[in-house]
Structure formats: C-alpha cells, structure tokens
Amino acid sequence: MKLLTWVKGWINKLFSRGAPAAPEPKESETPKVKRTYNKQKRQDFNDLLEHLDATFEKIKLPTMNESWLDRDSIVGLKKLGVHVPNPWKLKWNKNKDEIKLDVSKPLPAIMCVSTACWAEESTDLDGTKWFNPQIMFAIKHKKLPWNVAYQPGVPYLFGVAFAVDGKLFWMHMYMTVNRKTGAMVVCDELRAVQNVIPMKSSASKRAVGRTQVIKRTTWMPPSFLEEESRTIEESKLGVLVFMRAMHEWWVGRDERWNIVVKKNADRITFGVDDDTTPYYFRNRNKTVTENGVTKRIVHYVKEHQRVVGDKPTTVKEHIRGLREFDWMGYNCKVISPRLEQRTSSTFVAPAEDVAYDKTDTVYLSKLGKMLADVEERKSA
C-alpha cells in the first residue's frame, strides 16, 4: 500500500507542470523558487534513428504486479503500439468547464501516447524530486462498471503508466464525455472507508477496546486523484487537460506522417505533422545496405528547377528514398497520410466487460494487433 500511495503522488505532481502562474509576490513576500524542467527537444528523423534503443527501453518495460489495469488491456495497448507525438502540445485552462473535446471529430475506441519525451525524474531547484508517466492512454467503454458513479455521456477509462524500479505501474480512473458539447466529467468511485470511534465508558472499553472501527462504503473521487499537496479539483483539472491534448493529437493522425518502428513484439509509432516534414526528413545522407546495395532512406526534397533538354522544369517538393528498411535490428516503415488508408483514429467501437470464456468476442489484446496491422497496409 505504501508503494501505491507513493505512485499516486506522482501523477498529481505531473499536473503542476502546466498549472497557471502564481500572482506576483508582494514586496514583503519571499519570491517562490520557480520550477525548471527539460522541455521536449525538437526531433528529426536522424535523431529518431540514433536514439531508438533508449526510446524502446522505456516503453517495453514489464508490468508491475500491483498495477490497477487488467493484463489483457495492457497487452492490447502494447500491441497497438505507443504513439509518440512530435511535438506534444498542451494548452492549459484555469476553468475546467472550458476544457472540452471537439465532438465534431471521432471519439476513438482506444488512444495510447508516449510521454517519454519528458525525463522520468525531474528535480526542483530546492532539490525536491518528482516523476513523470511514460505512457498515457484512454479506452472507450460501452458503460461504466458497477463501482463507478453514473454520469451521462460516453464512458472512458483514462490512465497512465509510470516506470518504477524497472517496471511499469499502470493506474486509471473513469470519466465521461458529453456527445453534444464535449464536456468531460470525472466519475466518483465506490470506495471502502473506516471510521475510528473512541470508547468513553469503561464497560465499552472492556467490551471492544479503546476504539471501535466501523467500515462502510461511500461514493468518493477516484483514488487516482489523491495527493497531499494538491486538491482534488486541481487534480481533476490536470486530467481533463491531458485527455483533451491526447484526443486532439489522436484524431489528427490521418493528416500526419507515421513512422512505424518494430522490434520483436514491440511497436512504436512516431507521428509527424505534414507541415514539419521539411525539417523532420531533412537528412539526405542516411543510408542502409539492402542486398549488398547502399540506398538512401526517406528524405525531403525541396522544390527546385531542373533543365530537361533545353527546357527548365519546376520539380515540386516531395519525399523520396526508401520508406521501408531495417535499421540496427529495427524494422522501420514510413507511412504517408496521402498514400495510405485511414488510421485507427476512426475506429470508434466501445469496449465491454465480458466473461473470458466467450468465443464470439474480440478481446483488447487481439484488437490492438488488428488495428496496428491495418494501419500498415496500403490502400488499394
């Protein structure tokens, strides 16, 4: 239990990253020490290939036994593959009522993004250490489970995974999304609490002891949000901000270049905005040897003039080179948003809790691989 309390504190410290700035201190006040952290480095394709080992090490960690998320869902998320936003954009709002999803876009069945661009551990100027999750995910459900308070809207299981002693600790909570407005509501949970009542009379003390413990169940905010240094409302605000950022990035994947990298059973997809391809694929000198022949891998070619015969011709900007190749034991495939079919961002069927012995059900562990395989197939 001590470990779970420790980990729960991490998620809420993450939310302070985007918190609104405190008011300017008065002259009589001592200025607060500002928090510093490593901002995400803008990465290009060359950087990606050079640091694949480090990226995969963070994602492929085994699951901690104390994790809250069931094993089948974890396997499904890993087979779908963690998606790495490049860059990761986050907009903070002071009022949680202003934080809404764009419901004109799909409400995907499953989303899974990497936050490993942030360091696992950061340190304040005063020496205080705090931690960041490595994975953030959301799974749409058909209905809320029995131990979660009903709220109208589309149910989502939202969660994160932390790296703890070489393993991933997966934790989650439930929220709903209003189909018409996009407003999000965090759902309470049915939780066990205990009240300690001191005994006053000598007879009571002899009968039950100095105190009596009465246990009961009650509806309370998710334990996911609990942390001593932050209020529940502040934690809720952080959850909604991150859910919105993940949704905005995920539903825009059809307009992005996707770089799928696989090794054994592990899969990571790097998303690149179409308008940043000149920077991302700028390296023309990266080559691989294929069947004894050295070939250039994918790179960007800017618009230029070419003389064909005596006639000048304008060659429009384009991407050329190998789009599928092996690099240091990794299989890499670059997928264009204009040449391949739609991504899994348009898959919206919700999950449902069923018995494991049902034969007519596609479990999340299988669905994750199915969606990943479909994304790699070229359209006819």
Protein architecture, described:
By secondary structure, the chain is α+β, with helices and mostly antiparallel strands. The chain folds into two domains: 1-19 and 36-184 and 225-274 and 323-380, no CATH class; 188-221, no CATH class. Helix content is 21%, strand content 31%. The protein has eight helices and 20 strands. It has helices at 2-15, 45-50, 52-59, 71-80, 202-208, 232-251, 277-280, 364-375; strands at 82-86, 110-114, 121-123, 129-131, 135-140, 154-164, 167-177, 184-186, 189-198, 211-220, 256-263, 266-273, 287-290, 293-296, 299-301, 304-308, 311-315, 318-320, 324-327, 330-335. The protein has a five-stranded mixed beta sheet. A five-stranded antiparallel beta sheet has the order 2-5-6-7-8, with helices on both faces. β7 and β8 (184-186) form a beta hairpin. α4 packs parallel to α8 (364-375). The longest helix is centred in the middle third of the chain and has 20 residues, at 232-251. The radius of gyration is 25 Å and the shape is elongated. The model is unreliable at 1-40 and 119-129 (pLDDT under 50).
Q: How much helicity do the residues have?
A: 10-25%
Total DSSP E strands: 20
Structurally, how many domains make up the residues?
Answer: 2
Order of strands in the sheet with the most strands? 1-12-11-20-19
User: Which of globular, elongated, flat, extended, rod-shaped describes the shape?
Assistant: elongated
**N-C termini distance:** 53 Å
Q: What is the string of helix and strand elements?
A: HHHHEEEEEEEEEHEHEEHEEEEEEEEH
Radius of gyration: 25 Å
Mean pLDDT: 79
Percent range for β-strand residues: 25-35%
* Uncertain stretches: 1-40, 119-129
Number of helices: 8
User: What would you call the structural class?
Assistant: alpha+beta
Described by its quaternary structure, the protein is single chain
Largest sheet: 5 strands, mixed
